[in-house]
């Protein structure tokens, strides 16, 4: 016996805010082209490093947009029994690679500048940095409205928060170079942005690998779930408990519940289903109820 659920509501939540993602994507993509061009022209490594970070965010926003489409697309093959919700996870993995690549490029360029006499056009840094700050603030305002409802939008929102930090770094670098005449400020802040991007990439990579490795969802302890299920009235044993994340905001569980003599399977199943939903926010729990006398053996793997 089991309990199954439709994830249409979760997909719909992301779809409702697709327009926010689309507008933010247009703004950030346009600014990326401008920043990259001025970074190459001005020779500012801070601008180039922020442009590299912005490139990763353009992909992240684009992937979030595509993921909302793919997730809502019906399966015509009959083989995708969980739908296509993991498109978001694979898109996040691509973003990790781009972020690490951008960070490595900036670090390489910074090391290559050692001992070289480099001229930096601070005027372009300040103008482009200020424009980037305005663009990021607008994007933040757009995405903030959907961040509380959709984890997909929330991820994009956090990406733009980091972009805002990068724009502030570019402005600070421009002011320091203009005030001191020392281009080391540009290189130093560029390296700081690169490290910031690399650290965020590693953190995101850990989350992606945890999902693909089917680890227990963050914030949910398997032992706690096991104990709460055992405490359900009518349950005397629990085995083959598995917990994992399908994609952001969609946690899944399976378990075998052994019931005491005289317990009604349908009642036990409903109690366990409500427990998983209300206490652990797991709406898709496939629960199998077995009589104590059935002696079902636990799986060997």
Automatic annotation (TrEMBL):
Compartments where located: Membrane
GO MF, one annotated term: zinc ion transmembrane transporter activity
GO annotation, cellular component aspect: plasma membrane
Name of the protein in its database record: Cation transporter
Domain called Cation efflux protein cytoplasmic: residue spans: 218-291
Main location per the UniProt record: membrane
Transmembrane segments: 21-41, 47-68, 89-108, 120-143, 155-177, 183-203
Membrane topology: Multi-pass membrane protein
Keywords of this entry: Ion transport, Membrane, Transmembrane, Transmembrane helix, Transport
Ranges for domain Cation efflux protein transmembrane: 23-212
A Pfam family the protein falls into: ZT_dimer
InterPro entries recorded: Cation_efflux, Cation_efflux_CTD, Cation_efflux_CTD_sf, Cation_efflux_TM, Cation_efflux_TMD_sf, CDF/SLC30A
UniProt KW Metal-binding keyword: no
Family: Belongs to the cation diffusion facilitator (CDF) transporter (TC 2.A.4) family. SLC30A subfamily.
């Amino acid at each position: 016996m089991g309990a199954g659920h439709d994830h249409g509501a979760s997909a719909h939540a992301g779809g409702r805010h697709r327009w926010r993602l689309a507008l933010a994507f247009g703004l950030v993509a346009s600014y990326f082209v401008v920043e990259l061009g001025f970074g190459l022209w001005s020779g500012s490594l801070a601008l180039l490093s922020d442009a590299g970070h912005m490139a990763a965010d353009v992909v992240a926003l684009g992937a979030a947009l595509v993921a909302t489409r793919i997730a809502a697309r019906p399966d015509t093959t009959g083989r995708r029994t969980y739908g296509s919700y993991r498109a978001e996870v694979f898109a996040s993995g691509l973003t990790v690679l781009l972020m690490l690549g951008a960070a490595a490029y900036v670090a390489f360029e910074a090391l290559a500048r050692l001992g070289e006499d480099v001229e930096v056009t601070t005027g372009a840094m300040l103008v482009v940095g200020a424009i980037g700050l305005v663009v990021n603030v607008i994007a933040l305002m757009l995405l903030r409205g959907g961040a509380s409802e959709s984890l997909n939008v929330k991820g994009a929102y956090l990406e733009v928060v980091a972009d805002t930090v990068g724009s502030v770094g570019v402005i600070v670098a421009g002011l320091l170079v203009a005030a001191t005449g020392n281009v080391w400020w540009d290189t130093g802040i560029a390296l700081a942005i690169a490290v910031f991007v690399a650290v965020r990439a590693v953190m995101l990579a850990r989350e992606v690998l945890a999902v693909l490795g089917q680890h227990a969802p963050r914030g949910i302890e398997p032992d706690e779930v096991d104990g709460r299920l055992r405490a359900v009235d009518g349950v005397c044993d629990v085995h083959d408990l598995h917990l994992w994340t399908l994609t952001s905001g969609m946690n899944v569980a399976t378990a075998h519940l052994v019931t005491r003599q005289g317990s009604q399977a349908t009642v036990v199943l409903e109690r366990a289903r409500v427990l998983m939903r209300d206490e652990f926010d797991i709406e898709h729990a496939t629960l199998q109820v077995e009589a104590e006398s059935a002696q079902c053996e636990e799986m060997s793997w």
